[in-house]
Design goal:
This protein has a domain at 37-230: Rossmann fold. It has a 5-stranded mixed β-sheet with strand order 1-2-3-4-5, with helices on both faces. By secondary structure, the chain is of the alpha/beta class. It has 11 helices and 5 strands; from the N terminus they run H-E-H-E-H-E-H-H-H-H-E-E-H-H-H-H. Helix 2 (56-78) runs parallel beside helix 3 (109-133) and helix 3 (109-133) packs across helix 8 (216-229). Residues 232-296 are annotated as: Disordered. GO terms for molecular function: oxidoreductase activity.
């Protein structure tokens, strides 16, 4: 009986190894080279806690690539045709962005799994909105799922005593890094996929995403929140994370900007803080006017 179970286990392991490395991660054919184009591939995974009260998973997995892409956009437009590849994950299908708690820290492994899925959903929405923003510039962007890859990221947060047990298992059921790199390379190098800008790729082909990853209003709302979190200036709908903007999620940015600016324009007139400044100006005028009156 034990020999039978061992044989079944070995057969299952061999099947999973062949499935993930040969069937689910075939080498993408027809890939060209980078000659004549510029590509930026962004993607990293992290979890943990910091002293500051913010969502580390969202900051590292989404805000970091968002900021890097924003800083490189002038150069990418100059070097067009160019591409941006955002490394996402199939976990985005379990994501659900809550803009009231977008940047709140997570505690516990269950919240970390949820936050990871949310950050990967943010990657897909970011690629979608970026494609809209860059339409007609010669810069295209894609979200790519590398698949389950056997890398140090998989074992980074595993206790040391558990790693020797998981390494053989990871070798059996996870892709090699070469296999995981196929889809991002496909998005960066494949000819003729420019009309598919903003789409989600897995196993070197386009895959449909759930409705939450096709929500253009949520994508634009995430763009504005990401600008604020990345320190790129106040967002057009500059509300704190705890208080989202339910009144105008679909209103164009040109119509939303006057609302937060109205109090800043009208405040200086009646506010008491402006009266000392006015009094100083009046005193300076009086001081300058006194010698003139004495001379006359």
């Amino acid at each position: 009986m034990e020999a039978l179970l061992l044989g079944v286990g070995l057969l299952l392991g061999a099947y999973v190894l062949v499935y993930y490395n040969l069937v689910k991660a075939p080498p993408c054919g027809g890939i060209s080279n980078l000659r004549g184009r510029t590509a930026v591939v962004t993607g990293i995974s992290s979890c943990g806690r910091t002293r500051e009260a913010f969502n580390l998973l969202l900051r590292v997995n989404h805000i970091g690539p968002f900021l890097l892409t924003h800083l490189l956009l002038p150069r990418l437009k100059t070097c067009a045709p160019s591409r941006v590849v955002v490394v996402s994950s199939a976990a985005h299908r379990r994501g659900r962005l809550d803009f009231k708690r977008l940047d709140r820290p997570v505690v516990g492994w269950q919240q970390e799994l949820r936050a990871y899925a949310d950050s990967k959903l943010a990657n897909v929405l970011f690629a979608r909105e970026l494609a809209t923003q860059l339409e007609g510039t010669g810069v295209t962007c894609y979200a790519a799922h590398p698949g389950p890859v056997n890398s140090e990221l998989f074992l980074r947060h595993v206790p040391g005593w558990l790693r020797p047990l998981l390494r053989p298992l990871a070798w059996l059921i996870l892709r090699a890094p070469r296999g995981g790199a196929q889809t991002p390379l496909y998005c960066a190098l494949q000819e003729g996929i420019e009309p598919l800008s903003g789409r989600y790729f897995a196993n070197c082909r386009v895959e449909e995403v759930p409705p939450a990853a096709r929500d253009d209003r949520a994508a634009h709302r995430l763009w504005e929140a990401s600008r604020r979190l990345a320190g790129l200036g106040p967002a057009e709908d500059a509300e704190p994370n705890e208080d989202p903007q339910p009144e105008d999620p679909g209103v164009p940015s040109s119509l939303r900007t006057p609302n937060p600016e109205e109090p800043t324009v009208s405040e200086p007139d009646p506010s008491p803080q402006s009266s000392p400044e006015l009094s100083k100006v009046i005193r300076r005028i009086q001081v300058k006017a006194e010698p003139e009156t004495q001379v006359s």
